[in-house]
Structure formats: C-alpha cells, structure tokens
Amino acid sequence: MTFPTFTSTQIDPRARGKELGTHRSKAIRANLSGYSDLFTVAGATATQVRAWGEAALERTAEWAPHLAEEIAGIAGGAGLEPWQVAVVNARTEILAAIDATGEGECSTSVVLPGAGEAPRTVQTWDWHDHLRDAPMLWELEPRPGHVVRTFTEAGALAKIGVNTGGLGIHFNILRHDSDTADLGVPVHLIARRILDEATTVAEAADIARSATVSASTVITAVTSSDAASIEISPAGVAVIPPEPDGVLQHCNHFLDPALAKDERHSTDRPSTYVRFQHLRANIEGLSSDDHTKRALAMLSHGPDDAPVCAHPDQTMPINQRWETVATIALDLVGARLRVHQGGPCQVTEATWQTF
Fold this sequence. Notes:
Pfam families: AAT. This is Isopenicillin-N N-acyltransferase-like protein. GO terms for molecular function: acyltransferase activity. The mean pLDDT is about 95. The protein has helices spanning about 15-25, 25-40, 45-65, 65-80, 80-90, 90-100, 185-195, 200-210, 255-260, 265-270, 270-280, 285, 290-295, and strands spanning about 5, 105-110, 120-125, 135-145, 145-155, 160-165, 170-175, 215-220, 225-235, 235-240, 245-250, 325-330, 335-340, 350-355. The strands form two sheets. The protein has an eight-stranded mixed β-sheet, covered by helices on one side. Strands 11-2-3-12-13-14 form a six-stranded antiparallel β-sheet. Helix 7 (about 185-195) runs antiparallel to helix 8 (about 200-210). The protein is α+β, with helices and mostly antiparallel strands.
C-alpha cells in the first residue's frame, strides 16, 4: 500500500493552491470533516473552530502572505472557504486551544555518522486512526530550481520533507504550559517556509524564531553535515544540537532545560520518556545506512515495551485512538522521502515508497 502523490506544475502560490485543491478536492474535504469530528469530540464548537481558522489565516497573511494566498487557492479549487483550509493547517493550534490530551505521537532519530557519509534518519508518524487516509506526498517548486517534497495531510501545506537545497525536516508535536487559545502562526506553515527557504540548520532556526506561535512543536532540521531539533513554543525557541557522537533523537517532550520546566507531556503523555529511552537503547540499529534496518530498530509495542509502534484501541473515542500511520526516512543526497504506510512492525524491503 502507498500514499497518493501529487506534483504541482504551478509556481504562483494561488495558482499552485488551486491546482492542488482541484485535484485533491475529495481528500481535502474528507480531511476537514475528520478534523471537525475530532474537534467536536474534544470539546470545541463549530463557532470556535471557525474563529480559530479565521485567526490562523490572519496570522499567516501577516507572517507569510504568499502562504495565505496558497491556502486561498486550495480553498477555491476544493470548493471551500479559506478559513476551512486554514483549520486543517492549524489543527495543532486548535487542539492546543481545546487543551486536548491523549497518549500517543511520534518518535524521531537522526544520526550523523561523519564526514562523507549521509545522515541516517527515521521517524514514526502517529495520528488518530480515523484520519489515516489524510496523508499524501506532494512535490512543488516554490521558486524555479528549488524543489520541495513533503509528506503532509490533504490541504496542509507541509509536514515532514526534503528540499533540493540539501535540507530535510522531521516533525513531532510538543505541549507546553504557554500554549494558548490566542491563535498564532500554524507550526505546519513554519515547516513549509523552512522547506521553501532554508538550506542550513541555522536558516531553519531563524525562520522558526520569526513566527509568533500559540502551540508547541519540534522541527528537527538535517543537512549532510549538521542537525538540530528546533523546539518551538509560545515561551520561546530552543535549538538542541546532536550529542558528541552525532546522535540526535526526539519524542514528545522538551529537551531544552528552560522550556522543559513547563513541559505538559510529562503528565499528558508520559510514554514519550519511555519511547525516548528505547531510541537511546537502539542507537546501533538506528545508525545503519539501511533505512529498513533503521525502521526495525524503532520497533517496540506497548504496554509491555515502549509504544513506538502504535495500534489503536477501538474501545476508545476517536480523540483517544492512536495509530502509527507512517514510518519515514529522509534521503538528503537524493532529495527524496522513503515512506512506509504503517508502523515499523509491518516494514519490509518491499514496502517502501520512494518519492
């Protein structure tokens, strides 16, 4: 099984958005419907969701007008209002505004093996199982000669990805006491601007610092010779470098000592610490130059072991069901993604999708 793909032909942001919205209309509308259900179960009203979507669109227009134009184009192509597509892009911010909690989410590992060798990266992407059909792979050219390839959700401008400038990013959600219902720039749009504009880790961090946010996340930026986990929260941005051995790993809790003082996942999602310990214990496998071996090194199931590979409990409501929807490795040399649909327990040499 593979994720759907789409390659944009348009350079102009609004035209590019309209092209995507037209071709992926059904999936975008289904993704919006799935999030509407999630927000309702988590306690939000339709009036609140619209207000948050409108606020997210306004913040985006102030920070990156061209991305607001692209969102408007997607909406036009999909037969939606721009605020509705903004809701999909701001789902992290809306869930933080609702103060939604639950056990689950992503684990990321990066190893820089040394000069002349490509970074070894892999992550699991966990999300609510009723949204398992939302992901897609999207190739676009934000400016002539600069290609971005991203694993994202239908209607969202980016998530995990690579660019032909030699930079890639992984993506994990965080929660912090400073998270607020006063909607800021969506973190998914920070990821998109990094992919569009950055070719170094320092440039990626500068882009993150330029945004006023209302929700927390960590974007791990990687180049052939450098890496850093850029922890983003309303309380500030921290840059976490690799350990001296070149290992950089992240789950769903802050590693920066100052930001960690107001960490939310220590109580909301304590398994993040167990998953992090699992990554630390499996550095040898995660250092392999074979992406299948790296994925298998992530393999661990709860409740007896770290729940890196998640499977939903169908007795729970949709906002409390978590599934490892994808396992993803970055190929920075080829500016490609290696994507497996599902968790590490299903990975084989033949199940990878190269994009």
